[in-house]
Write a structure and sequence with these properties.
alpha+beta; Jelly Rolls; twelve-stranded antiparallel sheet; two-stranded antiparallel ribbon
Length: 365
């Protein structure tokens, strides 16, 4: 979105996992005025079609006071989890056993980030209607300096990607998340926001594969994307605290990588085309250092307007149209206390997906 002419933006001091990236100026973005204003809608459509982030200051702010108690309770849950309290016990304290029956818990010894995965079966009129829904509590990073946590809601086998193969259990997984964290309604109940998403994807949306974030000071997520089969984008909403975001199209990021690549990395990513392919290699440690631990690279990205400041009540939309046409993003936790946010995958309520919305283009695979 275009910044207001007279906006004054304070610099953000970025520190993540011991790396100080310095102070950067985020893009100034006007609060959402009238959701139906033609110029606002046209700008959203342009950005969505171009794989650009859509920052929506104050998008869910009217809902925050209504759900203040639930937000505080969620923050307390994360603190108790850090102190070693059973996630399974805390989760079942929040659930009605007549709707969600306990189905055990596991810990993946092969995943050092996972703390606990809790399973439930959804019930309707005392009958099981959806098996093996789960909520997985894990650290965001392997680095012990980052105590950021997240909870992901899904179903079935994670390794076999069951969530990509079927939709029948998806609504029950969403209901599970809403029952455990009722403040989901602060986002899904915001009709103007939901209507905007529907306009952008050209069909009724489904908000699934929900993740609850508790980013700790000095933490946050490295550069990544959310291009997954059938997923059309991401809706992230800040409910408490603040975060700094870097968000830009993969193709633009590749151009920066090519410009900054040196030595052996230049041989693999010295042109925009090579860098585009290099970004597909999640195991490239040299590239990861450039993307996530090189202050000069971070500041260069900020200088071209890719840094955004999200406060409580703000949302951001991240579009994806295919592996090379998606919005990559990274997050820096700000403030002295852990923040709180919800992130939802955007899907079409019905398959198959037909890209018929404004500015839509075919998904490439």
């Amino acid at each position: 979105m275009k910044p207001p002419k007279s906006a004054r933006v304070r610099g953000l001091s970025l520190v993540r996992r011991g790396v100080r990236h310095g102070s950067v100026a985020p893009v100034a973005v006007e609060p959402v005025g009238r959701w139906s204003e033609p110029r606002f809608l046209a700008e959203c459509e342009r950005r969505w079609a171009g794989d650009l982030p859509i920052v929506l200051p104050g998008a869910v702010a009217p809902s925050l006071q209504r759900w203040r108690r639930e937000i505080e309770a969620a923050l307390d849950l994360f603190e108790r989890a850090r102190d070693g309290e059973s996630f399974e016990s805390m989760l079942h304290e929040r659930l009605d056993p007549r709707r969600f029956a306990a189905a055990g818990a596991t810990i993946d010894a092969g995943d050092t980030r996972e703390l606990e995965k809790v399973f439930v079966h959804a019930l309707s009129k005392r009958r099981t209607v959806a098996r093996d829904l789960y909520a997985k509590l894990s650290w965001i990073a392997h680095d012990e300096r980052d105590s950021s946590l997240r909870i992901r809601f899904s179903f079935g086998s994670e390794a076999l990607l069951d969530w990509q193969k079927e939709t029948r259990r998806a609504p029950w997984s969403e209901a599970f998340a809403a029952a455990a964290f009722p403040e989901c309604a602060a986002i899904t109940g915001r009709r103007p926001l939901v209507a905007l998403v529907e306009r952008l994807i050209g069909t009724a949306p489904r908000f699934s594969e929900r993740i609850i974030y508790n980013n700790a000071p000095g933490g946050g997520a490295h550069f990544h994307h959310d291009d997954e089969e059938h997923q059309l984008g991401v809706l992230f909403s800040q409910l408490e605290g603040e975060t700094a975001w870097f968000a830009l199209p993969k193709r633009q990021l590749a151009e920066f990588v090519a410009e900054f690549a040196r030595g052996s990395l230049a041989r693999r990513a010295g042109t925009a085309h090579k860098a585009l392919r290099a970004l597909d290699d999640t195991g490239d440690e040299e590239l990861s250092r450039l993307l996530n631990s090189t202050p000069q690279f971070t500041r260069a990205l900020a200088e071209v307007g890719t840094c955004f400041h999200l406060r409580a009540g703000d949302s951001i939309l991240l579009p994806t149209h295919g592996p090379d046409d998606t919005c990559w993003h990274a997050i820096y936790a700000l403030g002295a206390r852990p923040s709180f946010a919800h992130s939802y995958g955007i899907f079409a309520a019905r398959r198959p997906v037909k890209r018929s919305g404004p500015g839509a283009r075919a998904r490439t695979r």
